[in-house]
Amino acid sequence: MALLFGIGYVSIIFEESLAFNKSGVGLLMAVSLWVVRSVGAPSTDIAVSELQHAFAEVSEIVFFLLGAMTIVEIVDSHQGFKLVTDNITTRKPRTLLWVVGFVTFLLSSILDNLTSTIFMVSLLRKLVPRSEFRKLLGAVVVIAANAGGAWTPIGDVTTTMLWIHGQISTLETMKTLFIPSAVSVAVPLALMSLTSGVSGEGPDTSDVMASERMAPRGQLVFSVGVGALVFVPVFKAVTGLPPYMGMLLGLGVLWILTDAIHHGESERHKLKVPQALSRIDTQAALFFLGILLSVSSLEAAGILRELANYLDAHIPNVELIAISIGVVSAIIDNVPLVAATMGMYDLTTFPQDSEFWQLVAYCASTGGSMLVIGSAAGVAFMGMEKMDFFWYLRKVSGFALAGYAAGFAAYLAVQSLHISLPTTVAQVPFISGS
Q1: CA torsion sign, 275 to 281 to 286 to 288?
Q2: pLDDT value for 430
């Protein structure tokens, strides 16, 4: 199974050379791995049960992705992004680089890294024409989204898992991981700012943006659409239901709203949800499905558990184990890796908010930025912008690695110097209430 996964992974990497679409390769790899798993399982019933469990988890993410992409597409069709792009007046690449990174970092801590990436990449499409610079900005979105998701319990799937199961608490995580997460973004941005691709004046898109007119009641659609995205973590906190249910709720509300405001206006059918559904990139969603199902087969077969046990047996230092988890998460999805880690160590071994769990939260979230395929944000970006694996490896991976290492060093410094966010943050109702 490991060999099959490796072949499939290499095929995705060399997509351009082999002329095979990565979505097709991902689906073929997923089915092949589960066929092998069904043969090797104690019984077919066990393999089917494992597949049903895995598919339930993967489907949650895929439906979340489809819901978010549709909401963003509806806002885009109403030219709602003009409300944002009209207020970003800078055309200096270096300034724009920092603005995009800062906004994504904050947005990801409120939403999650996947939703933030979909939103910001869609925004970049309206702000910057297709170019090398736009690809670089998209990579910044991936790095900033993963880092922003590391320091809040709702910003990344792995931190949410650790939070729900009691390994980390809200306030302590935010106080301790904010500085390392911020450093892991600031260092790549600073290094990118020194490159030749981020100098001088950027492309002038004012004529393009000026020619676009917001659709009727576009401001209302923008407000409801963004409100639906922001409401997802609130919905999860209030109801306890999975985030994709909150996303589907938002989509349903926006669907009814657009049907109502465009009722009887046949010339505006392209502004309604059915047309938006026909425009979203389902290829990206299928790629996502293939990758996650492939990784879940390795988890079901115990291969990821063996990897975790190997790390535990051969690396006695908790800091090195956490670093290794981050590095491996650049290749394999961080969710099953963290799940395996949680199964290996209980709260008696490492109590809540111990250094080990905080490092796992940081490393698993930010480590995925080192390769474009290492995180949900990267996979979404790769699908939406038709990103080439080797371009990201050449142009971005080194910066992401530097940020990852700098953030880790910042964490150790924070612990030794006892630095954290001001304790007055605890007075914020959202934080103190969890």
Answers
A1: negative
A2: 40
